Amino acid sequence: MSEVKRGYVRPLDVKHGRVDMTHGSGGRSMVQLISELFAKHLGNEYLGQGNDGAVLPAPTINGKPGRLVMSTDCHVVSPLFFPGGDIGCLSVHGTVNDVAVMGATPLYLAAGFILEEGFPLADLARIVESMAHAAREAGVPVVTGDTKVVERGKGDGVFITTTGVGVLPDGIELGGSRARPGDAIIISGSLGDHGVAIMSKRESLSFDAPIESDTAALNGLIAAMLATGADLHCLRDPTRGGLAATLNEIAGQSGVGMMLHEKAIPVKQVVAAACEFLGLDPLYVANEGKLIAICASADAERLLATMRAHPLGREAALIGEVIADDHHFVQLTTSFGGRRIVDWLAGDQLPRIC
Amino acid sequence: MKYIDEFRDGELAKNLALSICAEVQPGRNYSFMEFCGGHTHAISRYGLSDLLPPTVRMVHGPGCPVCVLPIGRVDMAINLALDHGVILCTYGDTLRIPASGGLSLMKAKAGVGDKSGDIRMVYSTIDALQIARDNPAREVVFFAIGFETTTPPTAVAIQQADAEGLMNFSVICCHVLTPSAISNILESPEVRQWGTVPLDGFIGPAHVSTVIGSRPYEFFAEEYRKPVVIAGFEPLDVMQAILMLVRQVNEGRAEVENEFARAVSRDGNVKAQDRVAEVFELRREFEWRGLSVVPYSALKIRQRYAAFDAEKRFNIEYRSVPDNKACECGAILRGVKKPQDCKLFGTVCTPENPIGSCMVSSEGACAAHYSYGRYKDMH
Q: Nearest-CA distance from B96 to chain A in Å?
């Protein structure tokens, strides 16, 4: 009998350990990080295959083959943990939503992690757990992934890129170029929650605001909306740049203008107040769990009723209409009684001085 | 939102608009300058001009801190960040002001050649002081701009640094004075001699007046026979002020009236004024963008606090740099031209790529018109 003892590997010290360069070097440490941290939380039959790629069944929808929808999203956020969420669940929600707003059923996710040397493993475990929880809730498993480690100072803790694949049944055609004059513009809830929650925890600007990020997977809400059979033309989630950027994008793609009504746009009081003292406009602040729906005006009320019956659409509101305009302006009737443009943002929103 | 919504009430606005329409005299034109960028922003942001009769014209004044800062001043800050390796701190909008060589503080932060500046946006001078405490081995410079509203916090920061012996902290002082700018406009030939810029009255600053009070404007009302109504930055404040100005003009009065009585007194914030006087003294002259060199129109740091004066510490001198030849910011800041009169407006000069400073901040006349009102030029 051999004198050599069977290899013993000390378990990963998730409580006190930190990411070091060996975790990205392709050796045992890397395998250990993957199995004891990533696979432990995210595990499923496809991830468990352990090959360079996941082999997945051909996608069908309602028993028929459908078209594939694919989307990818890089997530960098500071701070990594914020009221109402963290970079982990955000990276799942963001990509699930990008696939779902195409009208597709999201099926699978791939995740790439760039970790910074020195990052606490306990924080990484929290992030991966939150990701796993979000994936389970959305019903979209992470089937493949990758991890790289960069030297201290060359990353910001963790960057996560997720790619999603979904299946789109025939007959559903949604897109930014399909808005038509006369269409109704609907928002699924209050604006700016995510951006203000993040800002409230920024190092240079911490203030106490009872506000949580709205980060959420919208595939359930979207499925309910599609099931109404309403004549939907476009769905989109107003993330970076907020409502203003998203509507300007659609107006440009569709070659139309838009007229919004300030009074109808839902903004929580605390968000309005925070924006007020920071000199920001909530129409430009990011959301992570809201969608804009553009649909035939005749179906707007029916769609709104369905949205309001869903937990993520309770505050859904009709906020304006698509109009003919060769300049593709997004305009707003102010609650004050005037009119103005809601333009693209020029760079970041910077606070005014006076 | 309490104390905000009350001043944005659409119904009250309608009533005020009706009163203004009823009281303007037929055949008479009214031309009022809102001095402050805060008012310019409110007028555009709430679509106020849609509520006014066509005979009431609002002329945008020079009271936008980033708009009046000349290229040479921004160059000084960029130079400190790139060549002296300091941590340069400043307020939000300042980062985007165009400087020499196509640069801005934002671009200097991203890098020029093999150099990049450590440039940080702060929300208050307290943040800048903290950065200085946290980085004792680095020089930390606060690039201080703005009218009387932002001057007291800079004074307090310098006194605080002095008290703590925070010797790695210093300030480039570019604080300017509102009354000097108003005098300059009233003395300009366009207003005084040629009458090409008709000015029937001023909407006086909101935040500036909370510090300096309403007294300094009494001189303009008396000497130049121009009514002044000090107004808050909310849209109803502005509407009310316009109505008050219309009444003064109709009645031939030229007085200082205070619409913003909830925050402004005749004497202002005396404590703040004292702090400012302790730390700063008048500069003999200062170059403004648009108004050129205006005597005694800005502040410099007193000898007592010279150790905190970045201009002295780094031995940097102001060098005047002319604006882009086609840029009309100067004329726009004096009310001589409108943004739409500038060839660059909306073509090569946009908020994404500002050539002139009026296109930088949403308080600037050009950016406000471009971002909120340009649909009016196109229909």
A: 9
